[in-house]
């Protein structure tokens, strides 16, 4: 895993955005997504909202099926928050982190509307059988977000990441 993010120079030198940048973050594809979102936030002076959406939780953030929840699932949010804090330490990016419950596309669109987000940033999937099955089931998260009336969606291409192999 990389030590820290290397953010673009010239903080705040780009155009400003009307609202915060909402970024959907997941444990296995977070480095490239966080890098792009943090760069955009730094260049535009926007706040960075980071959200992890857990589809295994219902609206009250309780497990839908408590017997099916992995013991490690409860630690995901705290591990993500700690990792994000370490990566963004000293970067000058104003950020916050939240956990949402339910369908990722629905919850990110709802949160974007609630916060007035100007952009949503998410990662892509690798090509292969999983991507093919996802397309049959309605498309990727980025495609689902882009199809609905929400803010513009930035999809960060993710190839095989070194950190993915370590997990």
Strand order of the largest sheet: 3-2-1-4-5
Structural domain count:
1
Task: Determine the CATH topology.
Answer: Rossmann fold
Portion in beta strands: 15-25%
Arithmetic mean pLDDT:
77
Sequence stretches where pLDDT stays below 50 over 5 or more residues = 163-167
Radius of gyration using CA atoms only: 16 Å
Terminal CA distance: 10 Å
Description:
The chain is of the alpha/beta class and 167 residues long. The protein has a single domain (21-160), classed as HUPs (Rossmann fold, 3-Layer(aba) Sandwich). It has helices at 30-44, 73-88, 104-115, 129-136, 141-147, 162-165, and strands spanning 21-24, 48-54, 95-101, 119-123, 153-156. It has a five-stranded parallel sheet with strand order 3-2-1-4-5, sandwiched between helices. Strand 1, helix 1 (30-44) and strand 2 (48-54) form a beta-alpha-beta unit. The longest helix is centred in the middle third of the chain and has 16 residues, at 73-88. The chain starts with 20 loop residues before the first strand and ends with a helix. Residues 163-167 have low confidence and may be disordered.
Quick structural overview:
The protein has 167 residues and is α/β, with parallel strands linked by helices.
Topology of helices and strands:
Elements: E1 21-24, H1 30-44, E2 48-54, H2 73-88, E3 95-101, H3 104-115, E4 119-123, H4 129-136, H5 141-147, E5 153-156, H6 162-165
Parallel strand pairs: 1-2, 1-4, 2-3, 4-5
């Amino acid at each position: 895993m990389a030590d820290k993010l290397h953010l673009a120079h010239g903080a705040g030198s780009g155009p400003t955005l009307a609202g915060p940048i909402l970024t959907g973050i997941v444990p296995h594809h977070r480095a490239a997504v966080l890098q792009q979102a943090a760069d955009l936030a730094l260049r535009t002076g926007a706040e960075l909202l980071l959200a992890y959406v857990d589809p295994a939780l219902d609206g009250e953030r309780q497990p839908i099926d408590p017997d099916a929840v992995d013991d490690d699932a409860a630690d995901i949010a705290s591990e993500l928050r700690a990792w994000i804090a370490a990566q963004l330490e000293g970067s000058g990016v104003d950020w916050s982190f939240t956990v949402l419950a339910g369908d990722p596309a629905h919850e990110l669109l709802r949160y974007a509307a609630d916060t007035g987000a100007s952009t949503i940033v998410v990662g892509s999937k690798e090509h292969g059988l999983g991507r093919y099955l996802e397309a049959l089931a309605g498309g990727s998260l980025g495609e689902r977000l882009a199809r609905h009336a929400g803010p513009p969606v930035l999809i960060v291409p993710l190839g095989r990441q070194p950190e993915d192999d370590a997990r």
